[in-house]
């Protein structure tokens, strides 16, 4: 990532970071928080390059020509450490190794930087251990904590860091980026809308889960419209076996919400669809339901999401939702 890219995607963030670099007044710790962790991580790499860059003019940092910039870019700079969750959490011994490393002078310069990905996954002991480093930074150091949930970080860590909030990218921009990364149009469209969910799966498993879940929703929506008596059977055989916990059910409800929104968009002639490969089915849905019916179905799904958050029995919730979707009211 470069300044112009960051400027186009996150103009406020770009301005704040550039001014800190140009004035040579970088804080010792940042927290980058927002929904798109990949974007935040790339911005963390950019600020680390600017921090370590040998260019004498602050306005030209990072220069991308000096050895410091090139090694940070390549991911092999000895004075830049990246910490990621070990399994489900970031553990105290990982932070301990970081602190031990930072007790020594930099190998390439007097500066050291570290990035902590998914910082909200630090255990309490790891977070308390890190707090010591933030309270008493050792030499010229820069810490960047990347998180998707600021509220899960210790308040004492937040208070000792400068928080930079990244605005969510538009669905169109997220979809375009995913397609640039090699995703198919239909997968990019749905992933752009549900983000990094489910959060407990790796990239390959998440893709497989989304493909299957998407197909279940398409089939169930078709049964609701054309063969209502079969919808409850499909609910038991496919929905409840795929969407098995509250997080996954919530995602499934989001997929339903996008389906009915797409049907409404189809009525209006819009092309920014979550299900771009299902245009014929969406046209059928749109033809058979009025705008008010589609709006009512969207309200019904959103109400189901609220009930789910209130711990209503998921099976009863879904059965009630099916009835409302069939009625379109």
UniProtKB/TrEMBL annotation:
<dbReference type="InterPro" id="IPR050238">
    <property type="entry name" value="DNA_Rep/Repair_Clamp_Loader"/>
</dbReference>
<dbReference type="GO" id="GO:0009360">
    <property type="term" value="C:DNA polymerase III complex"/>
</dbReference>
<dbReference type="Pfam" id="PF09115">
    <property type="entry name" value="DNApol3-delta_C"/>
</dbReference>
<keyword id="KW-0239">DNA-directed DNA polymerase</keyword>
<dbReference type="GO" id="GO:0006261">
    <property type="term" value="P:DNA-templated DNA replication"/>
</dbReference>
<feature type="domain" description="DNA polymerase III delta subunit C-terminal">
    <location>
        <begin position="251"/>
        <end position="326"/>
    </location>
</feature>
<keyword id="KW-0548">Nucleotidyltransferase</keyword>
<dbReference type="Pfam" id="PF13177">
    <property type="entry name" value="DNA_pol3_delta2"/>
</dbReference>
<dbReference type="GO" id="GO:0003887">
    <property type="term" value="F:DNA-directed DNA polymerase activity"/>
</dbReference>
<dbReference type="InterPro" id="IPR015199">
    <property type="entry name" value="DNA_pol_III_delta_C"/>
</dbReference>
<keyword id="KW-0808">Transferase</keyword>
<keyword id="KW-0235">DNA replication</keyword>
<dbReference type="GO" id="GO:0003677">
    <property type="term" value="F:DNA binding"/>
</dbReference>
<dbReference type="InterPro" id="IPR027417">
    <property type="entry name" value="P-loop_NTPase"/>
</dbReference>
<protein>
    <recommendedName>
        <fullName>DNA polymerase III subunit delta'</fullName>
        <ecNumber>2.7.7.7</ecNumber>
    </recommendedName>
</protein>
């Amino acid at each position: 990532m470069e300044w112009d890219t960051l400027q186009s995607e996150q103009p406020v963030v770009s301005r704040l970071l550039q001014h800190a670099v140009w004035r040579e007044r970088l804080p010792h710790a940042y927290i980058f928080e927002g929904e798109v962790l990949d974007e935040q991580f790339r911005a963390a790499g950019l600020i680390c390059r600017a921090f370590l860059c040998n260019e004498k003019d602050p306005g030209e940092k990072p220069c991308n020509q000096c050895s410091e910039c090139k090694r940070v870019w390549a991911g092999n700079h000895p004075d830049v450490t990246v910490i990621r969750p070990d399994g489900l959490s970031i553990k105290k011994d990982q932070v301990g190794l970081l602190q031990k490393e930072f007790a020594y002078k930099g190998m390439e310069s007097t500066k050291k930087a570290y990035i902590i990905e998914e910082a909200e996954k630090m255990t309490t002991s790891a977070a308390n251990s890190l707090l010591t480093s933030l309270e008493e930074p050792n030499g010229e150091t820069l810490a960047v904590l990347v998180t998707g949930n600021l509220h899960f970080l210790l308040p004492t860590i937040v208070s000792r860091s400068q928080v930079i909030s990244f605005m969510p990218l538009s669905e169109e921009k997220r979809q375009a980026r995913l397609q640039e990364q090699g995703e198919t149009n239909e997968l990019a469209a749905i992933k752009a809308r549900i983000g990094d969910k489910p959060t407990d799966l790796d990239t390959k498993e998440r893709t497989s889960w989304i493909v299957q879940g998407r197909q279940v929703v398409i089939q169930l929506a078709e049964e609701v419209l054309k063969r209502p008596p079969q919808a409850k059977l499909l609910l038991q055989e496919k929905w409840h076996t795929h969407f098995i916990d509250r997080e996954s059910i919530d995602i499934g409800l989001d997929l339903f919400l996008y389906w009915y929104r797409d049907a409404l968009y189809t009525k209006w002639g819009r092309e920014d669809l979550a299900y771009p490969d299902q245009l014929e089915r969406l046209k059928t849905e749109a033809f058979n339901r009025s705008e008010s019916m589609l709006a009512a179905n969207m309200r019904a799904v959103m109400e189901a999401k609220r009930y789910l958050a209130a711990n209503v029995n998921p099976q009863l919730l879904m059965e009630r939702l099916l009835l409302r979707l069939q009625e379109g009211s």
